[in-house]
Amino acid sequence: MTPLDEAHAAMQAAPGDDVARLRFYDRLAGSELFLMLEAEPEGDSIRPALFPVEGQTFALVFDREERLTEFAEGAAPYAALSGRVLAGMLSGQGIGLGVNLGVAPSSILIEAGSVDWLAETLAAAPE
Questions:
Q1: Which end of the chain is less packed: N or C, by CB atoms within 10 Å?
Q2: Three-state SS for 48?
């Protein structure tokens, strides 16, 4: 179990607990995530692999390289980014996050609106 798995389990165990939910998103934001790409990066440019699920678009991220490899059934291009950077990058684009899909207990689809909320929350800074 990774720290993200543990935070997800706590959130799932108490669906009405806002503190557990916020802890999960805090852990997600603070984690190094491996974003699956369409192709190898070209300079500073990356193109996330996007997947449609139930009429929405999701970028896939994993909290361990091994989980990405397991999902892809072999080597796959990726970029390592913090959850904070990733949320900011995807914010406003109508793209959600598929986290550890099918390869971990923390498997979850996070809709685009929640990614936007996370990016806004993380952008708040003291005045």
A1: C
A2: strand
76-105 core/surface letters (b: 16 or more CB in 10 A; e: else): bbbbebebbbbbbbbbeeebbbbbbbebbe
Phi then psi dihedrals of residue 102, to 5 deg: 70, 5
Please tell me the distance from the alpha carbon of residue 40 to that of residue 91, in angstroms, as a whole number: 23
Q: Which two tokens stand for residue 40?
A: 């190898």
What are 4-25's pLDDT values in tens digits?
999 999 999 999 999 999 999 9
For residue 74, what is the DSSP state?
Answer: S
Judge whether 71 and 102 are in contact, CB under 8 Å. yes
**pLDDT tens digits, residue range 36-91?**
999 999 888 999 999 999 899 999 999 999 999 999 999 999 999 999 999 999 99
